[in-house]
């Protein structure tokens, strides 16, 4: 029996040795993993710090983007107003263009009428000049006749002794 106990103890010791070896191997692996985990934790902490910095930058950028969005919305409204004004100005320009075309047509008609009046005036003026010349000639003739008649009247008066 003693032998059996010794054998059993020896088997237990062998098993314990095997398990101790495995335990040592596992401990070594566990230590390696702990070192790797510490490295990973350090990297994760660095990444967390960087992510926090990036989050702060993103918040700033978001605020700036919101401001820019507000400004762009204001600009959009201003552009809409300007577009409406431009449409109104375009319509006004079309109206003015139409008025100018009508005025030019009227001006050309008036020019033609004025030219016609000038021609008529020149013609009438020429006729009047001719009539004035005729009248001047008639007046000269009347003057001469009047002078001659006066002379005749004076002779008659002298002859009659009225003078």
Overview of this protein structure:
- The structure is a single chain.
- It is rod-shaped and about 215 Å long.
- The relative contact order is 0.02.
- The chain contains one helix and no strands.
- 98% of the residues lie in helices and 0% in strands.
- It has one domain (1-116).
- By secondary structure, the protein is mainly α.
- Keywords: Coiled coil.
- Residues 100-145 form a coiled coil.
Task: Name its key features.
single chain; 163 residues; mainly alpha; 0% strand; rod-shaped; coiled coil
What is the element layout, followed by pairings?
Layout: H1 2-160
Coiled coil: 100-145
Keywords: Coiled coil
Helix content: over 70%
Large-scale geometry: rod-shaped
Intertermini distance: 214 Å
Number of strands: 0
Order of helices and strands: H
Q: Which consecutive residue ranges, at least 5 long each, have pLDDT under 50? A: none
Overall radius of gyration? 65 Å
Q: What percentage of the residues does DSSP assign to strands (E)?
A: under 5%
User: Can you count the helices?
Assistant: 1
Major beta sheet summary: none
Number of domains: 1
Whole-number mean pLDDT: 92
Oligomer: single chain
Q: Which class do the helix and strand fractions yield?
A: mainly alpha
Question: How would you concisely characterize the structure shown here?
Answer:
With 163 residues, this protein is mainly α. It is built from one helix and no strands.
């Amino acid at each position: 029996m003693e032998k059996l106990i010794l054998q059993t103890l020896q088997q237990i010791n062998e098993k314990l040795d095997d398990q101790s070896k495995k335990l040592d191997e596992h401990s070594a692996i566990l230590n390696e993993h702990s070192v790797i985990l510490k490295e990973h934790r350090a990297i994760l902490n660095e990444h967390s710090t960087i992510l926090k910095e990036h989050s702060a930058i993103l918040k700033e950028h978001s605020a700036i983007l919101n401001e820019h969005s507000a400004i762009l919305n204001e600009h959009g409204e201003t552009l809409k107003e300007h577009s409406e004004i431009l449409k109104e100005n375009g319509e006004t320009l079309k109206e003015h263009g139409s008025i100018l075309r009508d005025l030019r047509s009227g001006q050309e008609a008036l020019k033609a009428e004025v030219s016609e009046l000038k021609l008529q005036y020149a013609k009438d003026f020429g006729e009047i000049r001719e009539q004035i010349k005729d009248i001047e000639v008639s007046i000269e003739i009347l003057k001469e006749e009047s002078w001659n008649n006066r002379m005749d009247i004076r002779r008659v008066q002298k002859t009659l002794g009225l003078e």
